[in-house]
Amino acid sequence: MRKNVPAFGLAVLLCWCTAATAEPASGYTGPSAAPRAASAPGSYTGPSSVPVLTVKQLLDTGKDEQRARLQGRIVSHDGGDRYTFEDATGRITVEIDTEDFPPGQAISAQQRVELSGEFDKGLRKSEFEVDRITLLR
């Protein structure tokens, strides 16, 4: 005999799953209306052959799926996994998953960082998908 899950149980499970995925990335302490989540695990911190570009260079000459590094500041959390990144040449929307923040380290809007990732160039908008954040001194 098969037992059915009550509708209430499904509703609770759906709400719980939705709430768990709606939290923003942890580690960023700058402007945001959303609460922070838990810290993420560590990652590689050695040298890279991927070029450091400015936001302007990336937006003007970058190719879709191009690997790059950006140095500047994450100036705002725009909801979910979207943030605004800024350097001396401009701003770009960046996508940062929770696990891509440095573990156990808070990042403020004044902290200089290096973002490693991939440029996502679209017809109407472009963004940078972050794989790793490194704190700069």
From TrEMBL:
NCBIfam families: stress_OB_fold. PANTHER family: PROTEIN YGIW (PTHR36571:SF1). Residues 25-48 are annotated as: Disordered. Residues 1-22 form the signal peptide. The keyword Signal applies. This is YgiW/YdeI family stress tolerance OB fold protein. SUPFAM superfamilies: Hypothetical protein YgiW.
